[in-house]
Amino acid sequence: LSVQDTFCGATPISDRYLLTAAFCVFDPVHPISTVRLGELDFSKDNETNARPRDYQIEQIIVHPDYQVSITYHVHRPDSPVRSYDIALLKTVEKISFNDVVFPFCVSSERPSVGTTVIGSGFGLVNETHQSPVLQEVEVEVMALAECEKQYQEAGLLPHLKQAYPNLLNGSKVICAGYPGRGACKGDEGGPLYLDDGQGHRYLVGIVSFTGACKKESVMPGIYTNVADHIDFIDSVLYGGN
């Protein structure tokens, strides 16, 4: 997804629907109309990078409890509360799957603390440079108290609290990180997943909030907990939308 001057990710979960962050698509001034799938390297031309395909978006379904305000502006670290930061995109045409584009399984269980999970996206690889190549990174699920502590020590807790004032009072988010690596600006909306090593990827989170992206102080990422929103997802996929 191209959102103004940066990118957001989205993850196919069926041949017509993708999951992303509501943060990425709740913008009436710059509505999202297409999603590109199969892009691995933006630096290559079409002749050598023939896999990508753009799909028109028929419908954007944002979680009904997603909270925004009139001061909303995408990709600001001090954006308003991002509770229920999840949305589905419905494509006009069926998605063609191949060895690069395939549906993720939607996990019904929250990963436990210490679990190794994988994130991917075209986000920043340092403070200023956005990668033209799709990046993957392994991180570990963290206890929310430890996550808050790291933001406190970095002086970034006010930003975190503004986006998630009740971070420690629920199960709607996952915190995951690892020293020196993690999600950065431009990765929002992208997947956090488990790989079973047998060709299945289980979507457990959606990138919602990223902190500083200095190599020496990459902050843990905050992800929407997919398992906590199974009812919403099912209502869209099977409820007639």
C-alpha Rg (nearest Å): 17 Å
Count of extended strands = 14
Largest sheet, order of strands side by side?
9-10-11-14-13-12
Low-pLDDT runs of 5+ residues are 69-79
For the largest beta-sheet, the strand count, sense and barrel status come to:
6 strands, antiparallel, barrel
| CATH top level label | Mainly Beta
* CATH third-tier fold name: Thrombin, subunit H
Helix percentage: 10-25%
Report mean pLDDT, rounded to a whole number: 82
Alpha-carbon distance between the termini?
21 Å
CATH architecture: Beta Barrel
Gross morphology: globular
Total of helices: 4
Which H/E pattern describes the elements? EEEEHEEEEEEHHEEEEH
- The figure for the number of domains is 1
**SS class:** alpha+beta
Percentage of β-strand residues: 25-35%
What does this molecule look like?
The chain has 241 residues and is an alpha+beta fold. The chain has 4 helices and 14 strands. The strands form 3 sheets. Strands 9-10-11-14-13-12 form a 6-stranded antiparallel beta barrel. Strands 3-4-7-6-5 form a 5-stranded antiparallel beta sheet.
How would you describe this structure in keywords?
six-stranded antiparallel beta barrel, alpha+beta, 241 residues, five-stranded antiparallel beta sheet, serine-type endopeptidase activity, Thrombin, subunit H
Short synopsis of the structure:
By secondary structure, this protein is an alpha+beta fold.
Give a topology summary.
Blueprint: E1 2-3, E2 6-7, E3 11-12, E4 17-20, H1 22-25, E5 34-37, E6 53-62, E7 87-91, E8 105-106, E9 116-121, E10 135-142, H2 144-153, H3 157-163, E11 173-177, E12 191-195, E13 201-209, E14 221-225, H4 230-238
InterPro entries: Peptidase_S1_PA (IPR009003), Peptidase_S1_PA_chymotrypsin (IPR043504), Peptidase_S1A (IPR001314), Ser/Thr_Proteases_Immune/Dev (IPR051487), Trypsin_dom (IPR001254)
Keywords: Disulfide bond
Protein name: Phenoloxidase-activating factor 3-like 4
